[in-house]
């Protein structure tokens, strides 16, 4: 049964409204509605309905909803970065590559005894991490938000080219640029009409066709009439 569509775009202190239900949902179990059908394993979740997991046959009832697919790695639920990053900010969460796709884990995987030489661990479950990350899963980041108010799942707007270089947008700067250009151009061409008429007359006189110059060509050495010797 499909529940009412919930507007889950806003975020409170605990992240988007669908995140906690997603992390608590049980996946990879037979669908209760399509239990007799083949491939009825539930590995989908609707972010708008925020109910139980869905199978592929349930998708026909969620055509206009935001549905994500959950996968498994080492018996743990994961989701592809390309899917979840459209809805939340996953910064500070370590990503992994499985089957040539980047994924993040949904929930923590406690590791009380990190390996030797490990210098960075998850702030919640102590799993070994690369130095550039703070959490091993979405659930651990959610737990870290309780003590660090700077953490957020809200997506930040991507900076435009103009803001990267400290420039104004084209819509705000173009009219001003045009006014400056036109005013500067008008100052350069302001000439009294009388002067223009005099210049036009002088120009017409100077460019009137005249007698072309005569060019003579002389050779450096010219032979004269040959003289014959007397008989």
UniProtKB/TrEMBL annotation:
Biased composition (Basic residues): 219-231
Biased composition (Polar residues): 169-183
Chain positions covered by the region annotation Disordered: 164-183, 196-231
Protein name: (wild Malaysian banana) hypothetical protein
